[in-house]
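Design job #97: recover the sequence.
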């Protein structure tokens, strides 16, 4: 039998047409997060904003219409498809820049740097710009600051050090069209993993979009089980 058709990931975990905020581009809000101090942050595909209680927004970094791959301060930075955001205890944002195949860091004052990846699609563990992702999609941040990334087109879950951008593969094989299998580490298989979240036991919950199910991954060993769907 022929394999099932490959699903096309939605533009982001949250896709809301903005009609009531003061965003200059009035475009799609792709993801949102709340910092520990209550600050609310949101992303459009190409920019980050702080969302005030009034519903007004303060521009933080990126550009309203121009895409690219560039580190820098505020409006000098460029992104190419922000799909997920997480905020650490110091108020730094980490964003999945999906079409730049990179994980970016944005400080509270809007300084953008690339933590891992270099703008080229591929698959490689390593440190900083030696790392390769293929459309990183969902991200989650645990209590000690470790970042977890659903590497969508590589069909795996990666873990990233926030200190030096060291990346390793926690679960999955790192290949396109990997399939469906529970098990430890590299024996597990995903098919277009998307959204990520951490449960109260610090297990990762993964939306395995291509397999139409929810998977759980232990952060200590990378052991994968299916909790819903088949």
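Job complete. Output follows.
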């Amino acid at each position: 039998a022929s394999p099932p058709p490959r699903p096309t990931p939605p533009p982001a975990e949250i896709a809301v047409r903005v009609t009531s905020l003061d965003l200059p581009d009035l475009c799609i809000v792709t993801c949102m997060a709340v910092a520990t101090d209550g600050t609310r942050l949101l992303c459009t595909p190409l920019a980050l904003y702080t969302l005030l209680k009034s519903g007004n927004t303060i521009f933080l970094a990126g550009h309203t219409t121009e895409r690219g791959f560039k580190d820098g301060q505020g409006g000098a930075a460029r992104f190419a498809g922000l799909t997920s955001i997480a905020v650490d205890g110091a108020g730094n944002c980490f964003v999945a820049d999906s079409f730049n195949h990179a994980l970016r860091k944005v400080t509270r004052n809007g300084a953008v740097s690339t933590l891992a990846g270099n703008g080229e699609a591929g698959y490689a563990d390593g440190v900083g710009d030696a790392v390769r992702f293929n459309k990183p999609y969902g991200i989650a941040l645990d209590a000690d600051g470790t970042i977890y990334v659903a590497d969508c087109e590589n069909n795996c879950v990666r873990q990233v050090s926030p200190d030096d951008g060291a990346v390793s593969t926690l679960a999955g094989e790192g290949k396109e069209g990997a399939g469906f299998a529970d098990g430890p580490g590299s024996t597990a298989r995903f098919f277009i993993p998307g959204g990520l979240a951490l449960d109260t036991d610090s297990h990762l919950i993964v939306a395995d979009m291509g397999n139409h199910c929810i998977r759980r991954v232990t952060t200590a060993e990378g052991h994968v089980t299916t909790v819903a769907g088949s």
